[in-house]
Design a protein that fits this description.
Belongs to the HMG-CoA reductase family. Pathway: Metabolic intermediate biosynthesis; (R)-mevalonate biosynthesis; (R)-mevalonate from acetyl-CoA: step 3/3. The chain has 406 residues and is of the alpha+beta class. The protein has helices at 6-14, 29-44, 104-117, 141-153, 155-163, 197-214, 234-239, 253-260, 264-282, 291-302, 309-312, 348-357, 368-393, 397-404; strands spanning 76-86, 90-98, 121-132, 135-137, 170-179, 182-190, 218-221, 242-251, 315-321, 327-336. Strands 1, 2, 3, 4, 5, 6, 7, 8, 9 and 10 form a ten-stranded mixed beta sheet that branches. It is globular.
């Protein structure tokens, strides 16, 4: 029996005999994508030919997309090279950035140039752990207290259950939170080089089975939003999620004046009045200028979960003039959720982005590549913050965009 043609399948979909997500059961993934693309183009009137021009294997993308019709291309640039003294990321490296925002890469590149002139940036991951926080129903606060005590006394049993589901993840701890007759258990895992969201969800589910079997608590939801994933949340700003990472640099006064056309005192004042006071007045969880720009661009370039830019922008930028009149600048990102294995990192163009940084795949020791990626992103964010603050200090922000036509 011959395989059905694109025209045959189009007709079967239109007649309701085959649904879009069932096409992969009848033909290879690439042909299935062609059928969907043709159908959508016919019904919407859109010209989707360019969407069908993609470089990856459609079958290999199956874990990353449903009802695939093609691929979307985002321009990819590089900033740097920039010298980094990191706990895991070291040397002179280019930073890959995928974006459609004109002038962004140029701005980060300028920051990298100034950081390099100052001898390079320092970066360190200060805390690591991916979280999942199920919510349980109990009868009353007395039962809530009993559950909290049980969890504290039986953390080893929860660890055994959770770690039985994974050969890589390690349960670091469980923190209970009580709200009336709701008990939230915030599980925190070391996921090594994986971002680990699926890993910790499966592992936490296994531990929840033990809680329900051994206590009177009833699981309401495997995620109770105290994790907290893909939402602005103070708990992540305080406790961290994924990687907590900081990058900093001290820049000589003459470099600031000659390369950035402003002064350390001016940059420090702008940072205080804009990033701290202005952000506080706005009720912001992030006290920075545009950290999300660098995070998003490097996430897209390296195959990270783009929605987690929400947590990745949870950052504080500091700037101060030193006693010697130089400029100290830092960026601390509280909840940067990154991985170098799994997810979108397997796609060829994203894998290439990781190769530019030298961090693709599992690290040795385990977790070191994801640490290095976090440090690289923090340095990119630091460069972006420095450049934007300087542009504001020299009053060149609008003219720079105008000159670049963007």
């Amino acid at each position: 029996m011959t395989d059905p043609t694109v025209e045959d399948l189009l007709e079967r979909v239109r007649e309701g005999d085959v649904r879009l997500h069932e096409l992969d059961d009848h033909v290879d993934a690439g042909t299935a994508a062609t059928v969907r693309r043709r159908l959508v183009a016919d019904e919407s009137g859109a010209d989707l030919d360019v969407v069908g021009e993609y470089a990856f294997d459609a079958a290999a993308a199956d874990p990353n997309i449903d009802n695939m019709i093609g691929g979307v291309q985002v321009p990819l640039g590089v900033a740097g090279p920039v010298a980094v003294d990191g706990g895991a990321f070291d040397g002179d490296r280019y930073l890959p950035m995928a974006t459609t925002e004109g002038a962004l890469v140029a701005s980060v590149n300028r920051g990298c140039s100034v950081i390099d002139a100052a001898g390079g940036a320092t970066a360190r991951v200060t805390k690591s752990g991916m979280t999942r926080a199920p919510v349980f129903r109990v009868a009353d606060v007395a039962e809530a207290e009993a559950l909290v005590e049980w969890v504290r006394d039986n953390e080893d049993r929860l660890r055994e259950a959770a770690e039985s589901t994974t050969s890589h993840g390690e349960l670091l701890g469980v923190t209970p939170y009580v709200v009336g007759n709701n008990v939230y258990l915030r599980f925190r895992f070391d996921t090594k080089d994986a971002m680990g969201m699926n890993m910790v969800t499966i592992a936490t589910g296994e531990a929840c089975d033990v809680v329900e079997a051994e206590t009177d608590a009833e699981l309401v939801a495997l995620s109770g939003n105290l994790c907290s994933d893909k939402k602005p949340a103070a708990v992540n700003a305080v406790e961290g999620r994924g990687r907590s990472v900081t990058a900093d640099v001290e820049i000589p006064r003459e470099v600031v004046e000659e390369r950035l056309h402003t002064t350390p005192v001016a940059i420090a004042e702008i940072n205080t009045r804009k990033n701290h006071v202005g952000s506080a007045k706005a009720g912001s969880l992030g006290f920075n200028a545009h950290v999300a720009n660098a995070v998003a661009a490097m996430f897209l370039a390296t195959g990270q979960d783009a929605a987690q830019v929400v947590e990745g922008s949870n950052a504080i930028t500091t700037a101060e003039a030193t006693a010697d009149g130089d400029l100290y600048v830092s960026v601390s990102i509280a909840s940067l959720e990154v991985g170098t294995v799994g997810g979108g990192t397997k796609l060829p163009t994203q894998a290439a982005g990781l190769d530019v940084l030298g961090v693709r795949g599992g690290g040795d020791p385990a977790g070191s590549n994801a640490d290095a990626l976090a440090e690289a992103i923090a340095v990119g964010a630091l460069a972006g913050e420095l450049s934007l603050l300087a542009a504001l200090g020299s009053r060149h922000l609008a003219s720079a965009h105008a000159d670049l036509g963007r």
